[in-house]
Each structure stands twice: as C-alpha cells, then as structure tokens.
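Recall that a protein's primary structure is simply its ordered list of amino acids. Everything else, from secondary elements to tertiary packing, is in principle encoded there. The following example makes that idea concrete.
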Amino acid sequence: MANAPQTLIDGSTLAALSLARAGVQHMFGVVGIPVTAVATRAVAAGVRFLAFHNEQSAGYAATAYGYLTGRPGVFLTVSGPGCVHGLAGLSNAAVNAWPAVMISGSCDQADAGKGDFQELDQIEAVKPFVKFSAKATHIAQIPRLVYQVLSQAVAGRPGGCYLDLPSDVLHQTISDSEADKILSEVENPRIEEIRDKEVLDIEKAVSLLRSAERPLIVFGKGAAFSRAEEPLKKLIETTGIPFLPTPMGKGLLPDTHELAATAARSLAIGQCDVALIVGARLNWLLHFGEPPRWSKDVKFILVDISTEEIELRKPHLGLVGDAKRVVELINKEIKDQPFCFGRSHPWVEAISKKAKDNVAKMEVQLSKDVVPFNFFTPMRIIRDAILSVGSPAPILVSEGANTMDVGRAVLVQNEPRTRLDAGTWGTMGVGLGYCIAAAVASPERLVVAVEGDSGFGFSAMEVETLVRYQLPVVVIVFNNGGVYGGDRRSPNEITGPHKDDPAPTSFVPGSAYHTLIEAFGGKGYLAGTPEELKSALSESFSARKPAVINVIIDPYAGAESGRMQHKN
C-alpha cells in the first residue's frame, strides 16, 4: 500500500506555529504583503492578534506588554516603510530596557538590490536599536530564529530583537513531518526569564546602609519588571529606610506608605548620604546622580542587571544582578544582624514632616473647584474615581506635558505595574498602544488613560481598535487647545507674512475629541464641570467599555516646560 502523500506547509504557517509553540500568546501589528498569512495562521494556532492602524502604536503596545508580563512583546510589520515605522517600538524597547520582538516581511531575496517593492536593508535599518537581529534565508531556519529572538529579548538587560522574513522564504514549503521535526529540535529551552548573574559585595552594601545617617532607597521600572515588590517591602519595613520611586516605580510600595519620600523628593535626594538604587538608572530622571541635586558626598549602591551600566555610572558600590534576587540577598544578610531607623530618627522624621507639609499644600490647591478647569481640579476628581475602584486597581496610562507632570504628583499608585507613562525617552504617542497592551496583558484590570490633547493626537485613530476588540479602556483627554495650551506667543512674535496662521502650538479650539470614538460605536463624553466629569467617570468605569472623555481645560492653565507653577 502506498504511503499517504505528505501535507506541505509554507513559511508563514511555520512562523505562526513556531510563535505559538514558543509560548507567544499575543501579537500586535499591521498586516499587508507579505505577512498577512503569518497573522491569520498565528490566530489559527492560538495566538491572539491585535491589528492596529499604525506600526508605531503596535510597536509601543508590544514594548509595554513585555514590561507588564515579563515576556517578549511581539509585533508584526510589512517590509520597507512598515519596518521603518516599527523602529519606534524597537527604540522604545531599547531605551526602556523592555523585551520586544519585531518581525517584518521583506522583499524576495532574488530581487534584492533591484529596487523591489518596499525594498530596504532592514537588518541594517534596525541595527542601532536591537540587541540581536536575524534573517531567515530558508524556511527550515524559521523555528530556530523565532526561538532565538524571543530568548535574546529577555537575556541580561531586556531589549528589542528583530527577525526578517523574506517573501520567498514565507512562500517556501516543507512537509508537515519535517516541520514537526524542526520544531521539536528547537522547542527546548522555551522562553526563559532573566537569569541571575553572580552577585558580590552584599555584606558591604548592608554595612553601608547600616552605618549611614541619612540612607535612601530608590527603585525604578527595572525593579518593577523583575517583580521585586515583596523583597523591597520587606527591606524598607525592616530597616525603616525612606524610599523614592521613579515615576514608573510608583506602586511597588503604595504611594501612601509612611516611608514614601516622593512628596519630599528634593530633601531626600539632596541630603541622603547613602542611596541604594534598585532597577533605576542614574540618567536625567535622577539628575545623573550629580550635584547640586545630590550631595557631592553621597555614596551610591547601584543594583543593575547590566555590568555596562554600572561601569558607566561608577558608583561607590555596584551589584550586578536581577533586582529581585539582589534585594532578597540583602534581606538575607540583614536577617542575621537586623537594624532599623525608627520613626523618631531625625532623618526619617525630617522626610516625613516635609512630605506631610508638601502634601497638605497640594491638597489645599486640589480642594478648590476651579471652573473653567485648571489641571488640578479634574485631576483630583480622576484620582478619587480611580481610588474608588479598589483592587485590582486600574492601570493608569499617562502622557503629555502638563497633564503627565500634574498626574505624576496627584494620581496615586498603590499596586505594582499600574502606571505606564512616557518613560525614559519622554516619548509622546505611546498612549493608545500602551492602553491596548495593558488591556490584553491584565484583562482583570480597567485601563484609564489620562492624556494631553497633543499626546492623544499621535495615536488617536487607535480608539477604533479599542472598539473593535471591546477593550475596557477609558481615555480621558485634557483638551486645552494645543501643545502646552494653544497660542502663547508674545505680541512681538506675531509678525511676518504668515502671522495670521495659527500658532505652532495651537489646535482647533473646542475640538470634539469625544465624537471620534462615537464614529466607531464607542461612548463619548464632554466634561467642563466637576459634576459632568464625575458623572462621565462613574458611568464609563462601571461600563468597562471603550470610552473617550473630552475634558475642557482653560488654555492658559498650562506651562511650556511641562512643569506646573504650583501656587498655594
């Protein structure tokens, strides 16, 4: 009896099967020639595909997904311009140290160099932004390379990786038995979490903390990525050392914790003598660890997964390793000889008093109902609405200048990884992509975006994506008529042949952003008073359906620097 004929599968199917068998659960992207079949077959293999309007937003979504889940976020693009748009995601992954993989189609290998459709040397194009890149030149290489880019994305310091799939490779075929054999050979190991590196000098770190007069613990999104919240909580509460989170470190310990130094930031960093920095880089967000913001005599203990980062910063003491593991080892070392800075310790007392004083000043400003809205009144109402949800707390997505800065001071994070903002690069345009990533990565949580109107505009069309997938996302747009607040020109700047044009910072006054989502069947709200905003928040939070709340802000309430002038 003759053998049954072998079933043939093509490169698109093999790529989809490789992703599914490697444990990829979600993929983001924009389909088209030559990758549409990769997406449809990935869905058939059990991968949820979230189709976007723009590759930039898809890339931003993948990076945030990698941060929230600890596993590489995967996004798919077409060749040429699709790949170029996707560079936004790869660069975001690199700068924030989040694991992400971009997979792009590319032109037929036989036509390379001839000016083929959307031809680009994509391996060269991605080079500045990736840890690792690879091109499949034959269908049999696809499974190994899929596993390799996924593994490299989380190895050591997380970051972006790239896989190039030429059109001819996607159309090549092999038998299903041969495909099974290749997949089995590469299936182990599967996607791995970051491995611990050797950790040295734990005793010295503990000794520095124990002998310090004014110690401070600073932690960032690297600590959040490594799930370091429990050992950090134990360390802080055992030792009584005040702590300061970076913006996306907020929530690892509650913002309302009695040892939180966020509201006394200048005092904390300006006067501490020993600073344990966990999963945060001494970059612009922490004033480079330099005077005058920091004391010239401060001793930094820097915990980082990357040896290169420690070598760059040259701290008093560097501990190379995963943040969670290093803090666990510090706790273990302290256990034998515990110490604690009590509430009455002068340093702890000074931080606590300063924080309480600053919070009280802020609350005076927040207590006023100012109409037309400034930034503080609606932000207080939003804060209270978010807190009323309880646990699991909503994930907050925040971007903008004034909107993000005020939100960072006013909105409260009490649970880990519940704040996504413009990040290390201060990137505008991440908002809607981050919302979609958060909704699929944490389906049990409501997602609330607080966006400036300029930041919202970068990716506003993705509200259709929210409606299409019926994601529980409420987007709140602070509409003040432009970048920083519309036309801020002085009279002597309004001159020249185009003086009657709108200012470079101006948008159409009274833009009806809420009607955009209504065009796709979502719910829109317009809010210009406290009562209208409270009603919109209550209704949209309860519904857990896609919504946009257009909050009208006084165009003169903002500041160009993006840092509000606080008036008490």
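Confidence is low (pLDDT under 50) at residues 189-199, 561-568. The radius of gyration is 25 Å.
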